[in-house]
Amino acid sequence: MKPPKLFKLQIHSRSTASRHGHADEHKELEDLYLNPRDHPDLKTGDIVEIYDQEDSFSRLLLQVKQRSLKDDAPHNGVSVEESIAKTFQLRAYRDVVVNSVAFKDVELDLLELTVKDQYFSRSDMWRYRNALVGSCVQLFRKIEHGFGRTTVHEMWVKGTRVASGTIGENTRIVYRSLTANVFIFIQLSVEMWEFDFYGDLYFEKSVKGFLTDLLDRWRDQNANHDVTIVLFSRTFYEATTLDDFPCAMREGLLRDYKGRFYEDFYRIVVQNEKYDDWRFVLVKLKTLFHEYNESVLNFHAHPGVKLPRAYNSTAAEGNVLEVLNMGLNVFEKHTTDRNFERTGQMCVVITPSTGVFEVDRELLTLTKQKSIDYGIGNDLVFMGEQPLHVVPLFVLHNKQRNANHTGDEPAVYAIPNWLNYSYYTSKGANPHTFVPRIRISEKTLQAVQNKPFFDTSSISDGPGRLDGDDGWTPRNRPIAGKRPRSRVKTERRLSESTAVSVIYEETAADLHLSGEAHEKYPMLLSASLETANPLRPNALGSGSRSIENLNLERSAEPKRRTNKSPNPRSLINPLAPSKIPVKLTSNRRRWVHIFPTDPSGAAVQTHHRRATSHSEDVSDLSKEVLSKSPISESLRDTDSPHLKPRRQDAAETDRISSWVSSGDPDDNSIADDDSTAIDSIRSPRHNPNGWTKEDIGRGSPAPSGSQIWSAEPKKKASTSKNYVWGITGEMEWTPNLTTGVDWKALTIPASLPITTDYLPDRRTLQNDYLISDYSVIPEEGAGWSEASNRGNRDMYDNSRYCSRPLALKELYEELVCQRLQQGFQLIIPRKNMKPDDVPTIAGKLAGHKGPQQNMQRPTITYLSLGRVIHELTLYQSSITVTRFTPRHLYRIPCVKYQYRFMVPDMMSYRVSLVEFSHERLENFNWNYMDFCVLTKGRGEFTLDSIMKYWKGQYYLLPCNPAVKKIAEDSDPNSDCCKFESMPCDELCEGFVRIMEVVNRIKRPSKSNRRAESTIKRPAIATMKPLHKGANPAAMSTPDLQSASGTPKSDSPISYYACLEQLKQVSHTPSPDTVSAEAQSLGSPVRTAPPTVKTSLTNILDAMKQTTFNVIIPKQPDLPVNCFLSYEAVDWAIDNLLIHTKEAICLFSQMLREGLIVHACGDPNFPFISGFYLYCVVDHKAPNTGFDAANSDVEFSQVWIECALLNCDKERPSAHANSPAIPEYLKPDPKFNTLQVDLPDYPLHKKKSSVIDVDMNHKSDRLEWAVANYHHTFTPKCAFEIELKWIQASGPMFGDMIQFWARKCPASGFHLVPVPVDPFALPYKANSDPLRMPIFVPLEWQVLTSETVLFHDCPEESRYLRTVLFQELILQKFGFIHLQDNAKRTNVASQSREYVHTTGGMFVMIPAQNNVELGDTGSTTEQAGAGDCGLPNNRTEIGFWWAWNSCLTKKWRTANTGDEAFLDKMLADFRSFCSNSDSRLRTLWQAGVNAASPRDSFMLSADDAQDRGLAVL
Fold first, then answer.
1. Strand, coil or helix: what is 365?
2. Residues in CB range of 1065: below 8 A, 6 or more apart
3. Residue 563 CA, distance from chain mean position
4. Per DSSP, what are the bridge partners of residue 896?
5. 3-class DSSP state for residue 419?
6. Radius of gyration for the chain, computed over Cα atoms and rounded to the nearest angstrom
7. What is the DSSP secondary structure assignment for residue 970, as one 8-state letter?
8. What are the mean pLDDT values of the chain's consecutive 10-residue runs (1512 residues total)?
9. CA distances from 54 to 4, 57, 94, 841 (A)
């Protein structure tokens, strides 16, 4: 063979490329440079292979780009980019081989990309995938395309990991996140205080072992997840009736299916935090562990109160499904409070269980469907030993069963194949020491020890007996090297041939219940199902089904129970799950595309592997192929270190099992694993067709049930295998299957794949589905093409008032994107399916850079979500959407759940309520959604609450210098009451600058304009000027505000006199002399400064002069001579020496006379002071602004305008030098004018505008969002901006928000994200179950000797006065109002909310009757509190304090404060409210002193001095 030609390798970098002529400084650097004379056959897009013959590392694949072929490249050489060469261990000046390879020959099967510090929606993932098709990638390569940045993590080809490859249409792309939202739940059941077989305490094994290893792996992978850690447990009480409990304890009690009373406890340790060093959290966990048991079991203990005995539950009886649903309730609302720093979400449950749980049937159905539909990964990490039966295994409750049930019903099992699970083994474990996988109770072992150890005749027939020749010492310690063979004679057995349940019936004499009612106890599969310990409080409790309750001296005779029900059904056999046939469904294939495949094409989870016996190990170790399996090679860091993988041969890959046909939907022998009755897995029937293994297409990635149907409906479908166990359904469970830890899933969790391969056959769709369709036609009809769209794009990009219509293909792709965002998956065909067999398949997906498809042949795309299937058809000039919804709907249960909860900084547990439910996917209004996309949210198809859209809420808050002073104070007990009000004028001017940034108006800074616009004039004594920013409560013309709504003013000129004067002024000849030439040029030359008597025309001419800089420079989409109403009013105040309301009247008169007009051109638009755009009317100038006739977008939809309200300057100043009387001490207390709604400047109302997310026009997609914002800005309140979107890229949207946030501090504000529900009140069923506000009581008793506060006042005003006093406290600590408080003036039924100027915390003053907290109600399992008159928070006076859960580390700045600052604020606030330093009493005394006897209704002249504070 001719030796390959060698080339000299050179390495170039970004710093040397331009110097050697390989690249231009202003152009992107290419990865490869070749000389075209050396490779005449190469062209752009070809793949070349580069490798060193003497090096065994993977071969490098690179793609030839347009600028890769350079004539000035070195002859007989090749140049590779430095970072790529380093990754592939290529050294400079070595001889390498350069070959051209075919694209298909090196195409990848699976590509894993990692995402960090970005939000990728599922539509972004699909668009990103389409952009990568046809490219070549290498290991660890950083890919940046358009809006997103990713890194190549792993690549797979035919079960082998490779270092480079090409991305084709059939390549599956998996997105894994390094910044996900992770919930870690640690179950503190009774086993946590026990030791495992290696002598490790289960809690230390969980925290010091597994959790430490997990955090170390996060650090090694540079993962930076948002983490929430929760401790949870269940406490049982030995009580028979509710009367055994005191009234104060009954609020949180629940009852289980056995009639036992219990409470569930949850404690948040860390909430939504990112730390570089997690060691202090591990120390905190250990501290909480030592005090947890005592604090929970004795939570209700009080001196002199008799309580039922409390004990901790076992892991099997714990609240595992409940805690999973709490995480699901949070994750299902991921579209709300959208964080742009993270992608993906995962629940991790750490439990000492061996894998068996007792669960409620309805709750299991609900949990399963929510997890699958929402695509949320749930991982169970078991600290116990893996048993010899299938796990996880759920023992289902029988809801009809009660405490007096005879127990003749067998236990019903369910295998949750939608759960991923791992078994953790300590690092220090001896891999050569045998560990039994059946744990026998200590009482059983003690009973065995009391017998002669080798007297096998007396124990051979007993239950739980051990063979005498096994290596067990009298202390029951395993001897190294010997394997004990545990044999339980009385275990329940299930026939593998018929799968009929077997139970054991015992006589009363066989049970050690000492006084308990005689019951029949079905035995468990093995002692590992329930670990018994005589040291546990419930070891001998009623209802225990452990093996220790059986008489060890007598044997139990098994009796088969014949099911005499009219519809007999077989049950799952956990010892032989592979014998149970199941029907393939979409739920089983939902996650299958994230797993690599073995050479046969079956998906493989690499942390599951088969453990061999000793003889098999010796045999396999003699073979050199032991570690040659490509899948086994990838297990180096996925399992415990002492477990060794064994090669998977073809026999094991085939996995002999029962094969069933999914082509006949009427075959009753096939059990649908999505059935509502989870346990109804029917018995396998004889295979009538005689299928063999040769009939199975091994190259197919999906079984036959998942194929897109063939053109011949009568043709028999091919067969495949599907197992009830496992996420993929393609791996067979065997007893020698050993499971390690799935470190990859726990370190970099994968997002739900965007593709699947399951589609029901045609007959199933026709019989079991309802079909409906509708058409979506683009705005321009069939004549609007993609070519014309490109030609007119510049016109649309340069105009705000012309909305670019979507081309037909763009609309088609967007409809696909919307379904992907909502959880749908693209259905792709099997690899070995011929195109002729499937004429209606979506071949190459939209977005592929290929030739334009023939529009005469329809393009069809199938998408599925659960049992809902959509078919999108693109044909000619329309798009048809066909929906397949199931004919028979599932019953979706709704479970109400009550629990005791504690968040960080909370002093005690409080009762909280949550509702577990699931939305019906069939009821989603897709017709409305599609037309909303078509119209871009305008017209009648707006982003409504009936839709599921993405939403983020932001507050614009003033920067306060007190934050820095408090943060820099090293004293942890320093006084935090240092907040003072900021100058309102500066805040208003800063707000105007921010609005200019949001509206993209470019103009000189205010400081530069102020230096030129100042006019020095002598003061006029008769005209008292009003400062700018004065009260605009009267800033309206008579058309806008009625006389009754006009506030009083101290101006010497009355309101109506001002109007009459302005009318006269408008018709008075101007004293100014203006030349004719100046008039013709439109620039009058003023001989005197303007006054209030100057004509309106000349006032406008003076304002237009460049020295004043009121007129905005020419802006795109705005007419000439535009100005802001707020700046015009300021100019009039400064130069005309008039009041604010007079300036408003002045410009309103100009508006009526047609001298000025709003920028939209509507002459009826009123004049409003604020950020409103007006222009001077110039009939000679062409209209370059808004033209309603030629615009398809309204002016208000593209410009964000709002009024400005500032009342500080209008307040009377007669008593400015005397202390102000507190509002709560006045005879008629009320909220000040800033806190009530004004007619023309509403505070609580909002406006709406459509914003362009793609500000720089970088995206190939039309991206838009809707901004809802307050109608009026006031410096005394937080300004809210709510953004909603369905058609925008996550990374691009995040960049826009960050751009706004960076511009705000220069204007005296800062922008912070806030949750939509900041408080998550504990009695709101739809609130976040893992958040709760902290109640801070106000010690009002120190202010009065009476039983109530303000006892001398009228009863109807007492609570109002209390709220006003509480507001004064909040003002001292830097809290400002939310604008919604303007409509929350009824304090008896409406609470009032506040936000801190830092944005880090919220405070609520609850309503008097707390109607917002709602009624606790009664759940289906709640024990009920009766009519005991329980004391609760509703009678307490205080504050609800809540942290801003959206304020992540990225958003924290000097204006928000760090975590230490937030803790200091809460500590000092609590200290103030408790009057620990007498500051509360001092504040009260200052208010009493300010209220003189004649002004205060409360104090008489005689006793004011003597009684002091005691009067209240």
1. helix
2. 1092, 1093, 1094, 1095, 1096
3. 47
4. 915
5. coil
6. 38
7. -
8. 82 62 55 89 91 82 90 87 90 90 94 94 93 94 87 93 94 95 96 90 94 95 95 95 88 90 95 91 94 92 88 95 94 91 94 94 92 92 91 81 54 88 83 65 66 44 36 34 37 34 33 36 37 39 36 38 44 70 81 88 81 42 34 38 35 29 32 35 32 31 33 39 74 83 94 92 88 85 47 58 81 94 87 42 38 64 93 91 90 90 92 91 89 85 82 94 88 83 88 92 66 43 37 35 36 40 45 42 53 83 75 86 90 85 89 91 90 87 65 83 74 52 83 60 83 82 91 91 92 91 93 94 85 92 81 84 92 92 85 94 89 39 45 67 92 91 93 90 85 50 36 30
9. 13, 9, 10, 47
Lookup result for tokens 């093996």: 547
Length of the chain: 1512
CB 326 within 8 A of CB 319: no
CA 1512/CA 1500 separation, integer angstroms: 13
pLDDT tens-digit series, residues 969-1026? 888 778 888 888 888 888 999 999 999 999 988 877 665 555 554 444 433 333 333 3
For residue 491, what is the DSSP state? -
Cβ-defined contacts of 687-694 (< 8 Å, 24+): 687/658, 687/659, 687/660, 689/661, 689/716, 689/719, 691/659, 691/719, 693/654
- Beta carbons within 10 angstroms of residue 1052's beta carbon: 10
d(CA 966, CA 975): 8
Computed from CA positions of residues 1404, 1409, 1414, 1419, in that sequence, does the dihedral angle turn out positive or negative?
positive
CB count within 10 Å of CB 290 equals: 9
What tokens were used for 205? Answer: 């094994």
Spatial contact of 548 and 513, defined as CB atoms under 8 Å apart: no
Give the 3-state secondary structure of residue 862: strand
Q: Distance between CA 1025 and CA 1031 in Å, rounded? A: 13
pTM for the model stands at 0.80
Helix (H) or strand (E) holding 173: strand 172-177
* Closest to 538 measured CA to CA, from 795, 718, 195, 297: 297
Backbone dihedral angles phi then psi of residue 529, each to the nearest 5 degrees: -70, -30
Q: What are residue 1435's phi and psi, to 5 degrees?
A: -100, -5
CB atoms within 10 A of CB 852: 9
Question: Given the structure tokens 């104070």, which residue do they identify?
Answer: 969
Task: Tell me how crowded residue 1180 is: count the other CB atoms within 10 A of its CB.
Answer: 5
> For residue 845, which of 820, 880, 882, 881 has the smallest C-alpha distance?
820
Q: Counting Cβ atoms within 10 Å, is residue 624 exposed (0-12), middle (13-18) or buried (19+)?
A: exposed
DSSP letter (8 states) at residue 210: I
What CA–CA distance (Å, rounded) separates 75 from 49?
18
For 1124-1182, how does the pLDDT look when each residue is reduced to its tens digit (9 = 90+)? 999 998 888 888 888 888 888 899 999 999 999 999 888 889 999 999 999 998 877 66
Among residues 450, 489, 446, the alpha carbon closest in space to that of 467 is found at 489
Which one, of 141, 178, 173, 134, lies nearest residue 156 by Cα? Answer: 173
CA 1159 to chain centre: 41
Residues paired with 1309 in a beta bridge = 958
- Token duo for residue 622: 């003699």
- How many CB atoms are closer than 10 A to CB 1301? 19
- For residue 910, CA distances in Å to 249, 252, 854, 898, 903 come to 11, 9, 65, 10, 9
Cα 621–Cα 624–Cα 626 angle in degrees, nearest 5: 60
Residue 1363 backbone class (left: φ over 0; alpha: ψ -120 to 50; beta: rest):
alpha
- The answer to whether 924 touches 870, Cβ cutoff 8 Å, is no
- In whole angstroms, what is the distance from residue 1259 CA to residue 1257 CA? 6
